[in-house]
Specification:
Elements (H helix, E strand, L loop, with lengths): L2 E5 L10 H10 L4 E7 L5 H11 L2 E11 L3 E7 L6 H27 L6 H4 L9 H10 L6 H9 L14 H10 L3 E4 L9 H14 L3 E5 L4 H15 L2 E4 L23 H8 L5
Parallel strand pairs: 1-2, 2-3, 5-6, 6-7
Antiparallel strand pairs: 3-4, 4-5
The chain binds adenosine monophosphate and manganese (II) ion (3 copies).
Length: 277
């Protein structure tokens, strides 16, 4: 059985609409998919409806950015996506993104780049993300690809980096739990922390009520997955799989680790936590 618990759509910084994404997941032979846009649930309704048409099990989800040194992302799976508490929380995250976007636009202009607000708003997106800036910089011919845009202008330490205020880790986990979701530590290996710090953070997350750890993350490769599965075992967390799909030029949903048997028992857990809607 194939599943993918980490996918983005145009509701955040993905390139496919929720409908297109569900169709792609179906064509990739997935049985279960979770839509987890950044700080946003506006794609869920459309995704759910298309999933029903396509006959694929659908988990409403979200990926929250929490405050922790650089970036710490927490997935909320099986959330009550219509809850007021969640919407209030997401509205605040969105306001902070807007503040960052204005500053980032200024900074790019000050660096001599002729970029305007209309270049970063495609009209369909609900959130403003650095990805939208990266795509605009490519379209304007300033850089050759998205990767170069991040390296030269948008990454921490790059010329025009602007930080964004984020919610506390506690409040992210709390809002997921309060709206009936399962909290999962997204792509831990990608954080690049030394082992002792990873272990300590894992303990802290465990105490807060985070149940899963995204151990299988294709971009980080097999050795990382092995390490993360061991970490999940030590922490007594569920190791999950997520491709973090954004667009077709950066992988496909449900890409498998052929070297591993991705645990079938995940499906049991998905059912136990009542994640599909
Ligand atoms: P934000 O959440 O607005 O700060 O933007 C971060 C987003 O940028 C992440 O969700 C990634 O999808 C994307 N991103 C970061 N680095 C890169 C990169 N080197 N290439 C492509 N996308 C990236
Ligand atoms: Mn993204
Ligand atoms: Mn992430
Ligand atoms: Mn993601």
């Amino acid at each position: 059985m194939k599943y993918d618990l980490h996918l983005h759509s145009t509701a955040s910084d993905g390139s496919l609409t929720p409908t297109e994404l569900v169709k792609l997941c179906k064509s990739c032979d997935l049985s279960v998919m979770a839509l987890t846009d950044h700080d946003n649930v506006s794609g869920i309704k459309e995704g759910l409806e298309e999933a029903k048409r396509q006959g694929i099990e659908f988990i409403p989800g979200v990926e929250l950015s929490a405050k922790y040194q650089g970036e710490l992302h927490i997935l909320g799976l099986g959330i009550d996506w219509q809850s007021k508490e969640l919407h209030d929380f997401l509205n605040l995250q969105q306001e902070r993104r807007e503040v960052r976007s204005k500053k980032l636009l200024d900074k790019l202009q000050q660096a001599g780049i002729a970029i305007e607000e209309k270049d970063v708003r495609t009209g369909t997106q609900e959130i403003s993300s650095r990805t939208h800036f990266a795509i605009a910089l490519v379209k304007l011919g300033i850089v050759k690809d998205v990767d170069e845009a991040f390296k030269r202008y948008l990454n921490i330490g790059a010329r025009c980096y602007v930080p964004r205020e984020k919610a506390s880790l506690e409040s992210c986990v709390e809002v997921i739990k309060a709206t009936g979701g399962m909290a999962v530590w997204a792509h831990p290996y990608k954080m690049g922390l030394p082992d002792y710090q990873m272990e300590a953070l894992g303990q802290r997350l465990k105490e807060l009520g985070v149940k899963g750890l995204e151990a299988y993350y294709p971009r980080n490769g097999v050795n990382a997955a092995r390490k993360m599965v061991a970490l999940a075992e030590r922490l007594d967390m569920v190791p999950t799989y997520g491709s973090d799909f954004h667009s077709k030029d950066r992988g496909i949903p449900g890409r498998e680790f052929y070297e591993f048997d991705i645990p079938e028992n995940i499906y049991r857990i998905i059912k136990e936590f009542n994640l599909t809607k």
